[in-house]
User: What shape does this take?
Amino acid sequence: MRLCVIGDPVGHSLSPRIHRRFMEACGTAGSYETVTVTLETLADFVAQGRRGVWDGCNVTMPLKEYILPLLDAVEPWTAACGAVNTVCFRDGRAVGYNTDGPGVVESLRLRGFAPSGQAALVLGAGGAAKAAALALAQAGCRVTVCARTMEQAAVLATRCGGTASPWAELPRAAAACGLLLNATPLGMAGSPEFESLDFVQALPPEAMVYDLVYHPTDTRLLRAAEGRGLTAVGGLALLVQQAALAFAHFSGTMPDADLCRSILRELEDEAAE
Ligand code: NAP
Assistant: This one.
């Protein structure tokens, strides 16, 4: 099986490392490479895949939305997200999937979060927020979207049958949620920090905080949540889980939860060094 991750820049991607571990553990022969693909070379890459050069690829920035119209089919859930992070090439056809949304839900389940009936507050209304909010709604959460651009929050909230909250009312929205998920770049290396983390104090005592940012792994948001004794989950959990679901599309074998946990621990330990 010949697999790769495509994007630009892509050299920093942890996907080769994670997928090679899956291949080794699942006895899948083949390779997983890193390929720089730009918007200009994307159609050529897809054509290569259709010709059988590749069996599958993961897709990262800035290609996730642009690759969608170049594919032969996408599952309905992926079409709703409007973004693709996994492509399988089979019998001359390119089929796209989005494993970010299901990855959010599955990684939360692995941390003991039962989504059905929970109130989920999603911060942001971009690509990751869209996948997370739609998947959480599908899993039975009541979703509130809180974003600085209220129009985008409202559009996403409508699509997941939830409500939108203005950014300025984040503490009020936080007081009513069982899960707070940060899908903005706030707290990421090279991006601004949250102006205030006071909203963490407003969270109910049983709330869980999921920060999709994974560089750094110990964000100020996660530290504030831990400081309050809340369960805090960092973005590496999604990175590993969305990869496991992508690998299942490529190979037909879902890497087991213990393997995912062990890769996650390894990445977290390294980041902490
Ligand atoms: P995106 O499509 O650019 O969306 C970013 C969202 O954050 C938008 O709603 C944007 O609002 C909002 N935002 C940006 N700067 C803000 C600020 N200063 N204050 C308030 N809101 C702000 O990005 P994305 O692809 O969804 O990624 C979002 C985050 O998730 C990134 O940190 C990314 O690394 C992380 N992520 C992690 C994983 C993982 O595997 N762990 C996977 C995907 C994404 P405007 O529209 O108003 O700008």
User: Anything to note?
Assistant: The mean pLDDT is 97. Residues 236-251 form the longest helix (16 residues). The CA atoms of residues 83 and 205 lie 34 Å apart.
